[in-house]
Write a structure and sequence with these properties.
Number of helices of chain A: 15
Strand content of chain A: 15-25%
Oligomer: homodimer
Mean pLDDT of chain A: 96
Largest interface: A-B, 35 and 35 residues
Shape of chain A: globular
């Protein structure tokens, strides 16, 4: 059971608080991704210092290494990785499809080979619930299947229907307790009728929150928004809504406008390691020679250690020299940028001026669509 | 001009303070290596938190990238890399020989090709002084030549004599100012007569400090100590003595016993990235499967974030998964271990019980010679 309170709304945008056994999460919220028990190149204290209140952990990675049983023997993922705030784990379903090899999918579940050592594993709704329980995840995700985009209508329909049966098995296997919850995942591709059938199936089962799956799979922002236009408001009003794997700053602000409360994406952390910086003026590639002699901070509007203590010239040098400190500082900055954006969004909704923030952002923020 | 005050001595071991324009350094001191303008995988604040008071920067790396002129345009190396404490830079001589290709050495200097892009560069005593001045180095090292070990007596003699002529040219080119100084470098291989001739040549020129070069080049600890036995005490009593590129904990404690005040080595930082941990019980390889399920800290005697907040099991996981956080935490620990060792050494000399510390350490510290 998870408590979710909506403080106020502005049109479809919602300002809320999700309460877990490990603390509250102010929504709309962005969750940095801590794939294998660490947000790459960041100390947990630094992640907290960015303003992040909740992390995402990947069931697929953790079940393979160090294994869920081992994490449990260390007292769960919070203790293992030294993060005392809330944690959401995905179900493993999406990454089994994108990372492992030799998959066979039956009604029972998915059999696959580890991308690490080739070992054979089976993931079912029941096993996914067990793993996420062993990890001590505050928010467990139902086990689902996500088809490739584009796919024929019948394929999407069959897959969605199987995901709904798996959602029911997930609910049945989930061990409920105070401050812990289970989210169902809507599927149905880009088809309104399938999305609506999926919502009906999920709400009949009943979950602590509802995720929107099968988006940000290559369909583009316009199509994604068009699905959210009908799918997000159709979800239960009193439960948190989570758009999985999204996204760029403009994706997030546009999705909040359509009623989404939670997001996760590797983009700020991955970009931090490849030299792409999110700034208040748009996206900047620190490898570019134009930064070599620049005494400017990455983003003069940012209060992170990277922007207050280092120049673009120094950051350019670190990336050219392949120095780990470059990844450390730029990851910190990017996650801080995302958290600052979420704070601006939350404050704007509270003050009933989110529409203005949205419009200003969409008209001034440059080139994040290139990423 | 640099001020060096010896607080007290116990036999040949010395407890001193070296004062620079960027602050004091308590000796015996260990300098973490910040090769290319960063101690790899560490924020400067974290380096300071380990107790380190002075860093070493590499002239060879910095002259190639980002270039000394560019560092100067950013206000010098302290400002460029956000380290406000003292910095010592090497002369570039040693690394030109070990890292670059197509070298030709004449009386004038060394012509070489960059290991980064193959560009041709010339390094002379005068150019080395200019580069270190541009970097704003508090302690500039004289430009010298270091022959491979072993080498014939005549080769070592000729090289030492050239290094002494280069030392004079370095002194003549050095721009002296308050809180900045120049160290001469003793050469002469494993030959007592050459070492003594080198000391005579250097002291005739006169330096702010004296480095012992040409050791830790593969001769082994026993031979190194036998050279230090006569060479260290023969250096001027009132100036700091710096043993370059050393070393393992047992090398350091044995060299302090023989009168050395300063050390630098990549060992703690490089080992931090490869999974070797220095602990109060000896060296530990975190990759070993025996650590997989260990709830113990790396070193229960250590107060660093790695040891107080994480288990060996978690550290093992990070290294197996190739996570940057593993390098960050283990580098921090190793540098803290070295700084704790230096603090113990300094306190022991002050309390006239260094001999006891030395003997206890040499009889109990395990396997650092394997590294």
């Amino acid at each position: 059971m998870l408590k979710f309170q909506i403080k106020n709304k502005e049109e479809n945008a919602r300002r809320g608080t999700l309460s877990t056994a490990h603390g509250d999460v102010q929504t709309p919220a962005f969750m940095p991704v801590g794939t294998a028990g660490t947000v790459k190149a960041m100390l947990p204290q630094s992640v907290k210092a960015t303003g992040a209140e909740i992390l995402l952990g990947n069931t697929y990675h953790l079940m393979l290494r160090p294994t869920a049983e081992r994490v449990a023997s260390f007292g769960g993922l919070h203790k293992f990785m030294n993060w005392d705030g809330p944690i959401l784990t995905d179900s493993g379903g999406f990454q089994v499809m994108s990372l492992s090899s030799l998959r066979s999918i039956t009604e029972e579940g998915v059999t696959f080979q580890s991308h690490i050592n080739g070992a054979k594993h089976v993931l079912t709704p029941e096993r996914s619930m067990e793993i996420q329980h062993l990890l001590d995840s505050n928010i467990t995700m139902a086990f689902d299947e996500c088809v490739k985009f584009p796919a024929p209508y019948e394929t999407v329909k069959k897959s969605m229907e199987r995901s709904m049966r798996w959602a029911k098995r997930s609910k049945d296997a989930f061990i409920d307790k105070e401050g812990y919850g289970l989210f169902g995942i809507m599927q149905g591709g880009m088809h309104q009728d399938l999305r609506m059938q999926s919502i009906k199936a999920l709400t009949d089962i009943g979950f602590d929150g509802y995720a929107i799956g099968g988006l940000a799979v290559g369909e583009g922002q316009e199509i994604m928004f068009s699905v959210l236009d009908y799918a997000a408001p159709a979800l239960p009003e009193d439960k948190p809504r989570y758009l999985m794997g999204v996204g760029r700053p403009s994706d997030i602000i546009g999705s909040v406008k359509r009623g989404v409360d939670m997001f996760d994406c590797v983009m700020p952390s991955r970009s931090g390691r490849t030299g792409q910086a999110f700034t208040s003026h748009g996206v900047l590639n620190i490898h570019n020679a134009c930064h070599r002699d620049s005494h400017l901070p990455l983003d003069s509007a940012c209060d992170c250690p990277c922007c207050t203590q280092y120049t673009r010239g120094y950051m350019h040098h670190l990336f050219k020299a392949g120095e780990i400190l470059g990844c450390m500082l730029l990851t910190w900055h990017n996650i801080r940028f995302y958290q600052q954006l979420m704070q601006q969004i939350r404050t704007a909704i509270e003050e009933n001026r989110f529409e203005q923030l949205h419009n200003d952002f969409m008209s001034t923020y440059k080139n994040d669509k290139k990423m």
